[in-house]
Amino acid sequence: MKNTFKKLTLSALAVFSLASCDEQELIDLNVNKNAPTDVDMRYLLAYGQLRVAGSRYESWRTNLIYSSTMIQHNASLQGYWSGDKYYYNAQYSGAYWESHFPNPIKNLTHVVDKTAGDPEMANVHAAAQIMRAFDLHRMTDIYGDIPYSQAGRGLDGDENWFPAYDSQENIYQFLVADIKAARDEFSNSALPLGNQDVLFQGDITKWKKFANSLLMRIAMRMSEVDPSTAQSVFNEAMSNGAIDSNDSNAFMPQVLGNGGDTNYNGTSLVFSNQAGGGGDNNGKVSKTFMDWMNEHNDPRKMIISGGTGNPYDPSTWNTDPDAQKGLPNGYTSVTITSVNPDFESVHEYSFVNTEILDLDDPTPFISYAETELMKAEAAVRGWISGDAETYFNNGVRGAMASWSAFGVEAPSAEAVDAYLAGLDFANASNKLEMIGEQYWAATYLNHIEAWCNYRRTGFPALTPTSDPNNMTNGTIPKRLRYYEDEAGSNPASYKAAVDRQGPDLMTTSLWWDVN
Q: What is the pLDDT of residues 9-18, one digit of tens each?
């Protein structure tokens, strides 16, 4: 009995001793020694840039299904193209939020926080800050109040799993401050961004121009609700040098290769039937947009439209400019017969030109054309002393020429001159409307931005659709509803935002939308 007890005791001590000695070794077994311990922040910046450009998922749902049809760039007879008829689809409405908070926002916030205060990493920090601000600006203009100051910071020390939503008014103050600070931080003596800067390949002069044009866009968004601040921000940004040619356009190149649809143009991938694309040929050029181009003899018509017929079967195409036919917004394959009694197929309507939908075509963020048109508006408003007609003409010329970035032949200088002569901006009594219409045309493919500018200006003057099942009382949506998981996963912050901003509906106006 005594020997048995001794053996048991010694055995227990041996096990205890072994456990104590091997505790660290057991922990070490769970460490992947092949995993990197220090990631190059420039690599994370590159990944963040590509994710801001968008994958097929949110490009399909936010940019196309909702924005392109609400703004009547495109139209569809399909019910799942919800924006065309002002339906609410929870997954589609929340797609941008669902995709961007856990991906580019988290990624870019990590880069911003890890490089802050490091002079060597100043350029990386500044570029990441601008990209973060750009994406959050787009997100607040889609939804309204969103997490900004606490966005993407749940894993970097504070473990804030339930970020508060900032008011949009405060977000706009944060945007201006963050972008200005980042713009002024760029330094030739800091670590170069190099080729891992997908957007500008390390050209910090272009980064500064991008920042200033973005500030001008933000200022214009505030023009009706805080005009004095808007004018001040606009003038400061313009004086510091904004995008001044198509060579400086903030157009995100797509880097084809491995890595899924992050490396492809997300909007192009929706229409494509290659590389795992959606092959969605249900989106057509809107009758509203086609009629406007016809009315003004717009030379972009056969750049936007690829023809009538099946976009995947060139043998069916009719590319005669006079044969193009825009699809009316707001109809289904049943109700379309009320305006087209002879309707047989959706392919009788013009499809989006496949030549501007190549998988390696750039994703537009902000352009020279937009910058010049904003200057034209500022001149009409009396904010700046420049000539509004010059800026307007520059903007139209820039918009026309920018199509060459998509691998198509841009309209000739003679064609553009004739077009401008026909518009006769100098003698027009509706200059702001003309600027708004040209901004609408210049942002085709960047449909989210077109929708945002329309809500601010009311131009172009669109007639809402009237499907009987619409969710907005027959009005063009003012916002998209939050990602549906927010009400359950972040209930206190969600409730506070709704209490402050208004009901989580597509009819609730944003802070800057006072039209």
A: 434 434 434 4
